[in-house]
Amino acid sequence: xxxxxxxxxxxxxxxxxxxxRSVVRTCAFHKIECVGIYRGYEGMIEGDxxxxxxxxxxxxxxxxxxxxxxxRSKEFMTKEGxxxxxxxxxxxxxxxxxxxxxxxxxxxxxxFNKEFNFPIMGIPGTIDNDIFGTSHTLGYDxxxxxVVDVIDKIRDTASSHNRLFFIEVMGRDAGHIALNAGVGxxxxxxxxxxxxxxxxxxxxxxxxxxKSGKSSSIVVVAEGDKTGKNxxxxxxxxxxxxxxxxxxxxxxGHLQRGGSPSCFDRVLASRMGVRAxxxxxxxxxxxxxxxxxxxxNVTPLEQAVKGKSExxxxxxxxxxIMST
Length: 324
Ligand code: F6P
Fold this sequence. Notes:
Helices cover about 40% and strands about 20% of the residues. It is of the alpha/beta class and about 325 residues long.
């Protein structure tokens, strides 16, 4: 392998820049050329590339987002699109790539590898932590810290005004952010897609909280929660059934995806980048680099895409006990 391409695709996450930096510097260390591919598969199709050396990635380990930019490409889902991408890579003499992203990114990578036998290693980058084969995806730890920080602030208002807040957090179909940030911020209830706790339980829990002397409450709701009601409908429901509550809603949105990566994410990104490049050099392909029991490991991309990343059920019980 003489030239490796690196790209970020799908939703951005803090730590992507640190991972790009690691890929570029590991290539430089092993005297391999490195090329940045702009805007994920979109830029690959258009041949939007930039040569990167060790110095091109200075000063970015602490930056959120991705300087290579990211996109979700419709054209790459077509055979013609993938053929164009392959032609562009070949024209630039790129003979392997590291792709940083989530589920959709890896699904695209698998199809591409099957069609063109192009060597690929994946690095999981998403705040959702919804990828099988790693305990942590890049950006998840930073997002948790951001969410906890914001909930702490909202709690100031909740307790000053004796209010109940429904706070919606991201995570797509997964409840990792809600569950962990909820426990970390001391939420009274946490609603996640993996366990439908039901509305009755929510009402019971709120009534119990009130009886036990609590004057304010925080309910963290994962955006993919399955109660069948979104945060605004939950507010209406409580207004109707428990008019004594003064309810507010806060949807945290994209602030959860931004910001400087935590130390954990920077270190993880650095470790993952080294492993991805060195595995490509050693002839490996079609694996995702992950972290399990604090060891860097690899999982076949196919399993990473098909497998389910389980939530930590122990945390549900911990949360129940903590909100006594
Ligand atoms: O996958 C990351 C994520 O932020 C999810 O948590 C969320 O559901 C989705 O992306 C939002 O996507 P977009 O930025 O396209 O609105």
